[in-house]
Structure formats: structure tokens, C-alpha cells
């Protein structure tokens, strides 16, 4: 038996570890081919110098910084102190200033986060019900902010200049030019305003339909019948401002949605690339160690639990799909084809019903108004809205029943159901507008004098705005009615009634796809209707603000969360994609109304132009000759074709760049897989 001195025994482990072949190979690898051999590591030496004189055994501290038993904050501080010694005074000042500025911006960002709308409510919902439901409420908050900004645009550039000009505020006035070369019949417009003694019922009817006293207010297009607002010596071209503000709110919506979609698309790509990496991130790096509050810790724990449940559910569905036999695949594909035929039949039935209801409503409502049949008038005016709402309620219920037999994953079920329901709702709006335009823009004798049916629609823009207003109000009433008269009584029955049938039915699930569809439908109506009703975004903002609390109360008290958890990363991106589809579809009716259908000659800012778009070339004619030539050149084919080719080349370049980045990421992932099985590579 051999004994060693105490000093040798204490130093042996360190010397022994440094003599290992694996440690020497790591040092040679760091030195690089042909490079100088630096067994101690320059970074560790710099860190040692920055810390000052070392005690006995300092030669062991001259190792690379990553091998020191220090916290991340201490390593970062040592690294910065080691490097800042070799910088000049100017570079040291720049680095210090940059660091201070970043810290100030970070503090401001953290402070502003506490002012975020519904911050605490959404975090609480995320912890209790998962990120899938939280994504719906975050989406609702986004639409509230978007509509508020649209309202600020329309009010600042359209409503406010009109109001101050008509009432002479700030020594302002307005110019009004009578239409030229226009039949006198086309300029007759007498809004159905209330005169004399008016019953309370009439005010209620006007509030619901947008007629009567509301028709003559700034809510609708017909109120803005000025050609220029004059503030002292400044002349405000109102028709051009009205059109440019319309383009501005559409461009704002498009840019904001694309920006949010891009960030969501990046997150969905990261998640879809490697399920194992996503699982590891949640298990080993999902916890936020900055949480000190017990309630916040519970919410975070529940959120992670829902995310893991979603991962396991998706893996179970994928394994089930992979284990299908050929016979099962043939059966499920045949069933899906049959069910899609049923879906197509439901869509065609909805479209035909809306078209017939709109034609019947316009015919009967005009007769009722002329005969002063108030009860019949409101019934016929709301007939298209009622039919559309009925179709929007029945069709999703049919689709939700059919989707259960198609055997898709939970995430794909939401996407497919949402696409079908969005197509129904948005197409219903399109059918309504098409049926209106078929009566506004006709080819018979009633349309020859003015280019549109001036007898039925002397101010057709206000009529379209009233239809959009009725759709928005009726949709809001239906959401409240479903919560108060369906969900709440059902919750009372389930809570206080022990019948087996009632307990079997249970509480209604909080369907994410249905609720997202409701707000996308309402937002599409707002985008289309804002041109015809400039204050409609204000109504939409108030509507969504109230809906947030209605849905929150419904989720907590009258409904239950979905039985199958939903992933938020893909849901957020898909919600924005569907919203983008709604925005693109809103461009079509607005483009037709602005560029194709003749503008009303009896109301609105475009009375003196054949179409609303005609104000643009008319304004360009007032520019200098050189600027006119530049603008005409930009609008010509000689500029459009090369510009399109350059855009295509840039797009192809970024596609190729994205493909190259994707290949690099795949190679790095392969290297990470190799690292898992090579423990020495961590040294």
C-alpha cells in the first residue's frame, strides 16, 4: 500500500485532468491548424488580468473563460473588462454610451408594457386556459387598436375638416361647386330625416337601420358634400383627401397585418422544423426564472402544461395517420369527397338565399317607405341582415359536425373549418353587394340620365353604408343575444339540474374558430363600409371592446375550454392569414365602387366627378408640366413592365436566399445531432 504526501494528493486531480488526451486534443483544436499553441487561452488570460493579482494557484485560473465556475453575468462582466482595456478612449466612450442607451430603451419598453391594453387579463387567460385561447384574445386586442387608428385617420382628415368648415370654427369656410353638365333629376336628394313630432319608436328604428336622423349626420357619406375646406389662406382639397385617406387606412391595415404575420410565420417555422427541439425547449428552458409572484408561477405552470398536452396530442394524431392501412385511407378519402360535396351544396344554398332576400328587401322597403309603413319598412330593411346572420349561424354548425367525420388533426380542423366559414361569411357579403350593385348600376332607362338608378338610390353610397352599418350592428346584437339567452341559461341548467340528458350535453365549448370568424367577419364589414360610412371604425372599436369582456365572462362562467388543446404559434399566424384574406377581398368591392360605378351627383365630395377615382387625374392636371410628365410616365406601361420585372428578380433573390439559409440551418441541426452523441465535443 502506497502513501503520498498531502500536497501531492491535493494537486494531483488538477494535474491529472490537464494531462488527459481529450483535454489536450481540445487545446490543439482551439489553437487551429498552423496557429500558435496557446494552452492557457488568451481570453482566460485577459479575464485574469482584468481581475487583478490572483492568489496561489492562479495558473489554474488562466483557462478559457467558459471553463470557469462563474455565473453568466460574471463571465459577461469579465469578458467586457478584458476587452475594454485594449480599446481607445473614443471606442470606450462609444461602447459605454451604446450600452447606456440600450439600457434606457429596455427600461422604457418594459415600462410601456405595463400600459398595454388588457395585459393582465390576457396573461391570466393564458395561464388558465392555454395559449390557444389566449391567441384569440390577443387577436381581438389587435383589432381594437387597428380600428382605433383607422378612426383617428378618418376623423382627422375627413370628419374634422368638414365639421370645422361647416360651422365656421377657426375662421374656416367651405367651397361648394354645383355639378355641371348633369341632369337636374340626378341632383335631387332629400334624406328621410324626421320632422315634426316623432315617436320614440322612430328614433329606435333609425338607430338600428341608419336612416332618419342618422342619415343626415357625419356617420354616412352623404354628409360630406363639400369640395374644399378653407382655413384662412389654406385650401384643403377635400375629395382628394377623402380618397387618399381611404387608401391610407387600407395600406395601414395591410402593412400591420403583414408585419405581424411575418413574425408569426418565423415562429411557426421554428416550431415545425424540429418537434424534439421544441419539446426540449419547453422542458429544459421553458420556465421563466424571473417570476417571483406565486400566482404568476401558477399561470406559467399551467401554460407550459397546455403546451405539452398539445405536443402529445399532435404526436398521437400523427402516429395514428402513419399507421393507417390502404383500406382505411380509401375509406377516409371517399368520405371526405362526399362531405365536401355537401359543403358545396350548403354554400350554394346560402348564396342563392341571400341574393333573393336582398332583391326582395330592396323592392319592398322602397314601397314601404313611400307608403309610410314603418313596421314593414324595418322588417324588409333588415331582411338581408337576418338571412346573412342565419346563414352565418347555420353553415358553421353544419361544418363543425361534418369535420368530426373527416378525421383531421386538431390544428388542421380549426384551419379547415375557419377557411370554410370565412368563405361563407365573406362570400355572403360579396353576394349582398353584388345584388345591390345590380340594382344601382343598371342598363334600363332609369340609369341613362345619371349612370345609376337615381330613383331608388339618389345617394347610393349612403345606401351601401347603411347596409354595412346594419350588418355590423346586427352582428353585435347576435353575439350578445347568444351569450345572454343561450350560454347563460345552459350554464344554469348544467349547474342546477341533475338530469342525465342535461349533464350529457354539458357546457358549450369555447370554439376558437367560431369566435375568430365572428371578429374577422365584422372587420371585413368595417373595411368595406368605412369608405361609405367614415365613422364606422369608431363603432367597430366600441363593439370589439365590449366583446372582449363579454367573451371573457362567457369563457370563465358559461363555457368550457376546448377538449383538445390548440397551439398558439400556428393559430396566431393562421388567424392573421385569414384576416389578410378578408382585407384582400375587401379591396374588390371598394375598387369597383371607386373606379367603375359612377359617383352620386346629389351627395358626397365626388359629385363633380364621373367616378371617385377621377379626382386623381383632375388633381394631376393642376401640377407643373414636368411633374405631370413624371407621374404619367410612372403610370404608363413603359414603366410598369420593367418595374414588375425588377420586383420579380428581387423576389426570386430573396427566395433563393431563404433556401440557402434553410440549408445552412439544416446542416447546423445535423451537427447538433452529432454533438448529442459526442460528449468530448462539449469540452
Automatic annotation (TrEMBL):
Task: Spell out the subcellular localization from the entry.
Answer: Membrane
Q: Where are the transmembrane segments?
A: 142-164, 240-258, 333-355, 382-405, 417-437, 471-489, 527-550, 571-592, 639-660
Query: Where is the TMC domain positioned along the sequence?
Result: 459-569
Example GO molecular function term? mechanosensitive monoatomic ion channel activity
Q: Which GO terms describe its cellular component?
A: plasma membrane
What is the membrane topology listed in the Swiss-Prot or TrEMBL record?
A: Multi-pass membrane protein
* Entry-linked Pfam families: TMC
Q: What is its main location?
A: membrane
Q: Which region ranges are annotated with the description Disordered?
A: 27-60
**Record keywords:** Membrane, Transmembrane, Transmembrane helix
Question: In which family does this protein belong, per the annotation?
Answer: Belongs to the TMC family.
- PANTHER family in alphabetical order: TRANSMEMBRANE CHANNEL-LIKE PROTEIN 7 (PTHR23302:SF42), TRANSMEMBRANE CHANNEL-RELATED (PTHR23302)
What is the designated name of this protein? Transmembrane channel-like protein
Natural source organism? Asarcornis scutulata
Instruction: State which gene encodes it.
Output: Tmc7
